[in-house]
Write a structure and sequence with these properties.
By secondary structure, the protein is of the alpha/beta class. Helices cover 31% and strands 21% of the residues. A hairpin with a 2-residue loop joins strand 14 and strand 15. Helix 20 packs across helix 21. The radius of gyration is 27 Å and the shape is globular. The chain starts with a strand and ends with a helix. The structure holds zinc ion (ZN) (2 copies) and fe (iii) ion. The site of fe (iii) ion has 8 residues, from helix 13 and strand 22.
Length: 765
């Protein structure tokens, strides 16, 4: 038989994820000879065998890759056979060019979990068990390359048993950098608030007892501390909220296993798949009304945020418990705590006991949050399990750093044909977030050996992020309009250039007329945009204050709808006193204190507050979420598209732009509230009308400009109705629809768009 030989060059996340042992086993299974070799920035597979045996190998190589591996590029070259006699793993080679990629942290694999619960195994009950297929990566890595000496495992010396596993290419712990066992690895301690160690026979038994008694535990995890409490104990949950200063924002739950998850929520197949993926995010899913979860866990929503245990510590912690509240260990709005010292200082007065360990967390990383839309994950927060994975771009170009927006901040680095979005930082208004930003950015820059040629920032002159960008030395800076960045981000992750009809349906972003934009229809490509339609401007009483006090937006909307007929008594459902309403109504006519906004998010806030669903928001978007939840009241998830728009939303041409007029629709809503129409039906009408008017608008723009691709971005697409019903409707009408699945549709995805816009501008210069 004739022999053939392939040289395969791979880049991506192919180091520290069990890739070489996988190739080794695969090659043997296919009866092939040759070698696999790690180089600094790629992996080479030189493989030969009988004619016809290489193609199946190549197929399996791509289809069966380890869960945490990610192939970005694969090139195959046929070469003259070298008559290799066996398949081997060659010693790594250093290259002077290129950067290796580090893997995100990976949830405990099935094999490690089985060992954990196997009383005969030497790692029985050991909370730091891991292998090449699972365990900590990004959060324990100080610098590159990813070797034990460059991680926080460097201070632990492997015992002979562990070393043997580490050196054996056939073992699943071959070159598992964080490999450890009870003899040689990290250990737990249970500590009181005063730093005194708690004397007890079994730490976990004690922890379980305390949790069952309603105590609050600070638990050191993978990317930071959690605060844990019994979710079936209302008093305990309330105490946690009071101490943490977090009022209504839902708390995430960690559930023991899928069975426990299904007891709490109805889960689709796609939801199960995403929940149990290597990233193991918090999944937002519809809860079962009969679950006995304490009301304070997630007040005012029909969903729960669930995640599975993703470290051996979590698995062991939950072995006798069905679920735990696991919320990030911080005071509200502060970055998540990672160091013992900070834990004792900042969680002082919140936690009763501290479960800590001596494996240092080097990189902060919050739990990621995902909602499943149309069977696909949509990231609400992209962090642990996803960062620092890159996205593959269509083209190469300049090295650009983008600093994101001020809320839900992330940064993004473009290098070669890759984009590296950083992990979720949070709201920059908090002084500690600035520290987190710089710490994380310099970590990425070190890992990637990255110096920017240009820096991208938001157009908003008052943003912290804008200030930082402008203060940077020796590098040019560029402002990018917020909603253009949203659309460009959607284009980039879908590897499209445009032009598209971009629907940026959002909270707030600085517009190029100085007003507050947020309901924008842009004709856009990656370099430029024009605003072709937007929601009608409404006064935003008190500016940013209106974000936290949706009742202000409701008054503004009512004045707009009723004009001279406005009476404070028409806003009875809001239960605010008439004097304040009257005063605010007067204020809406004052342009100095009231900028104008075209935001769809604020329109949702207004309608929500008019329906009495929450005049004050404990967190951004709470009112809008309440309006979405109101749709589902007394029934299943509402997904229908009305045949005709139930509310009179329509557009008019004004100064060369189309303006979606909202006055008559709002007036009709006010009349319906007065007549006592159920709020679930008003909420459905409102959602349905928004979807219809946007789809009609896309039809109109297709007619005018011949563009039939629509990109959907902006915070409003966290709303499951908008994110599922609108794309389905647009597809039925013959559009191609681009949505977000890799970076969040909210401001967490902005930095990718900013970076891409600036790179395109530089290219066209
Ligand atoms: Zn494992
Ligand atoms: Zn050991
Ligand atoms: Fe935004």
């Amino acid at each position: 038989m004739k022999r053939r030989r392939f040289e395969i060059l791979l880049t991506g996340i192919v180091q520290g994820v069990g890739f070489r042992p996988f190739v080794f086993r695969l090659a043997r299974r296919h009866g092939l000879q040759g070698y696999v070799l790690n180089r600094t920035a790629d992996v080479v597979i030189d493989v030969e065998g009988e004619n016809g045996s290489l193609e199946p190998f190549l197929r399996d190589l791509q289809e069966q890759i380890p869960p945490a591996a990610m192939i970005l590029d694969l090139a195959v070259r046929e070469r003259t056979p070298a008559n290799y006699s066996a398949f081997e793993i060659k010693k790594s080679e250093a290259q002077d060019r290129g950067t290796p990629l580090i893997s995100p942290d990976i949830a405990t694999c099935d094999l490690c979990r089985d060992e954990l619960f196997d009383a005969a195994d030497r790692r029985y009950g050991y909370p730091f068990t891991n292998c090449t297929n699972c365990g900590p990566r990004f959060t324990i890595t100080r610098s590159m390359p990813y070797d034990r000496v460059n991680t926080s495992m460097s201070r632990f010396r492997m015992c002979p048993d562990c070393q043997k596993e580490y050196d054996n290419p056939e073992h699943r712990r071959f070159h598992a950098q964080p490999n450890a066992c009870p003899k040689c690895g990290p250990h737990l301690r249970l500590v009181k608030a005063d730093g005194q160690e708690v004397a007890c026979d079994s730490i976990f038994q004690r922890v379980e007892k305390e949790l069952r008694a309603g105590k609050i535990l600070a638990i050191k995890g993978l990317g930071g501390y959690h605060l844990a409490v019994d979710p079936f104990n209302e008093n305990a949950v309330t105490r946690l909220r009071e101490r943490k200063g977090r009022w209504r924002k839902p708390l995430a739950l960690m559930v023991r296993d899928l069975e426990s998850a299904r007891e709490l929520c109805r889960l689709s197949k796609a939801e199960v798949r995403i929940m149990s993926s290597a990233a193991c995010p918090i999944l937002l899913a519809p809860r079962r009304p009969e679950s006995r979860i304490a009301p304070s866990v997630a007040p005012g929503t029909v969903e729960l945020g669930l995640m599975l245990p993703y470290t051996p510590l979590h698995h062991w912690l939950l072995r006798n418990l069905r679920a735990l509240v696991m919320t990030s260990g911080n005071r509200t709005d502060e970055p998540i705590v990672i160091k013992e010292k900070d834990a004792f200082e900042r969680l002082n007065g919140i936690a009763d006991l501290y479960l800590v360990h001596d494996r240092e967390i080097l990189v902060r990383s919050d739990d990621s949050v995902v909602r499943v839309m149309e069977g696909e994950p949509v990231l609400i927060r992209r962090s642990r399990g996803y960062a620092p994975s890159p996205l593959l771009l269509q083209h190469e170009g300049a090295r650009v750093l983008a600093v994101g927006a001020d809320l839900k901040n992330t940064f993004c680095l473009l290098q070669g044909n890759r984009a590296y979005p950083g992990q979720h930082i949070g709201d920059l208004e908090h002084p500690d977030a600035e520290h987190f930003f710089h710490e994380s950015l310099s970590h990425f820059q070190r890992m990637l050996n990255f110096e920017p040629e240009a820096v991208a920032h938001d157009l908003h002159p008052g943003y912290f992020s804008t200030g930082w960008a402008r203060r940077m030395d020796h590098v040019e800076t560029h402002a990018v309009q917020h909603h253009h960045a949203h659309i460009a981000s959607c284009l980039a992750e879908n590897r499209e250039q445009g032009p598209v009809i971009g629907l940026a349906m959002d909270g707030t972003g600085y517009g190029d007329d100085g007003q507050v934009w947020g309901g924008e229809v842009l004709l856009a490509d990656c370099a430029s945009y024009s605003r072709s339609a937007h929601f009608e401007y409404l006064p935003l009483p008190g500016g940013d204050a209106a974000i936290h006090e949706p009742w202000r937006m409701a008054v503004s909307a009512a004045v707009h709808a009723l004009g001279e007929d406005f009476e404070p008594s028409r806003l009875r459902t809001m239960s605010r006193d008439e004097e304040r309403i009257t005063a605010l109504a007067r204020l809406t006519r004052n342009r100095v204190f009231c900028p104008l906004t075209s935001s769809l998010g604020r329109l949702f806030d207004a309608v929500s507050a008019l329906l009495g669903l929450g005049g004050i928001a404990a967190y951004e978007g709470e009112a809008a979420i309440a309006l979405e939840m109101a749709m589902h009241e007394g029934g299943n998830r509402y997904r229908r598209v009305p045949g005709r728009p139930p509310l009179p939303l329509f557009w008019e041409e004004r100064d060369g732009q189309l303006e979606i007029r909202t006055g008559r629709a709002l007036r009709q809503i006010l009349d319906q509230i007065e007549r006592g129409k159920p709020r679930s039906r008003i909420a459905r009408d409102f959602h349905g009308s928004i979807v219809l008017v946007l789809a009609d608008l896309c039809d109109e723009l297709r007619r005018r400009h011949g563009i039939d691709i629509v990109a959907l971005s902006g915070g409003c697409f966290q709303n499951a109705y908008l994110a599922q019903v609108l794309p389905a409707l647009l597809r039925r009408r013959g559009f191609r629809v681009l949505c977000h699945h890799k970076v969040p549709p909210n401001d967490g995805g902005i930095s990718l768009g900013q970076a891409v816009v600036v790179r395109e501008r530089l290219r066209k210069r």
